[in-house]
Amino acid sequence: MTEAHIQVRTLKELSYYPAHPDRTESTEFKEIKKEFKAEHATCWIGNGYCHGPIETHHGIIEYAEMNGIDWEKVKKDHPNVDHVDDKDQMVELCERHHRGKYTGIHNMSYPIWEMQKYMNDETLVKFEAAVANQLKLDEAAKKGPRITASTISAKDIEEGEV
Predict the structure, then answer these.
(1) How does strand 90-94 pair with strand 54-58?
(2) Contact at 8 Å (CB) between 94 and 45?
(3) CB-based contact 97:103 (threshold 8 Å)
(4) 41/20 Cα distance (integer angstroms)
């Protein structure tokens, strides 16, 4: 059996964005945000570690990608989505799960991001401890090489040493 461990990796992502208008909020997008606010929308992850205001995320097609999308292909998988600001492709997220370092959809792979929603309590606590520890390491790295990732083990986190 593989023991519990933390895996830190660098994901190099390549995206191509066709020419598109500068990002502005369309009237429809503004209305969707108002509707979600009136509905008291909460973070889709909703795992008890939410932080910051609720933000609206384009869950299927990002704004910058809209001019390179074949919307007929999208409709095959998402029949109610036919343009970038369609409400059926929006996801409400707290700031932490939208743009947060190590926890936000814009900063990690989708499978790892989504897993935050479904972790059991024990695993979630350990994941959050690892995130907090990595943020400390990042901060320390800005000040100089005093702490390295190799000095922290999964066992340290499990035993509450960090």
Answers:
(1) antiparallel
(2) yes
(3) yes
(4) 29
- The one-digit pLDDT tens for each residue of the chain (162 residues) are 988 888 888 888 888 999 998 989 999 999 999 999 999 999 999 999 999 999 999 999 999 999 999 999 999 999 999 999 999 999 999 999 999 999 999 999 999 999 999 999 999 999 999 999 999 999 988 887 555 555 556 666 666 665
* Amino acid identity for residue 125 in this structure: V
Enclosing H/E stretch for 93:
strand 90-94
Q: Residue 93: which residues within 8 A CB-CB, separation 6 or more?
A: 43, 44, 45, 54, 55, 56, 57, 104, 105
Q: Are 8 and 150 in contact, with CB atoms under 8 Å apart? A: no
Q: Tell me the CA distances in angstroms from 96 to 3, 22, 103, one per residue in order.
A: 29, 25, 6
State which amino acid sits at residue 1: M
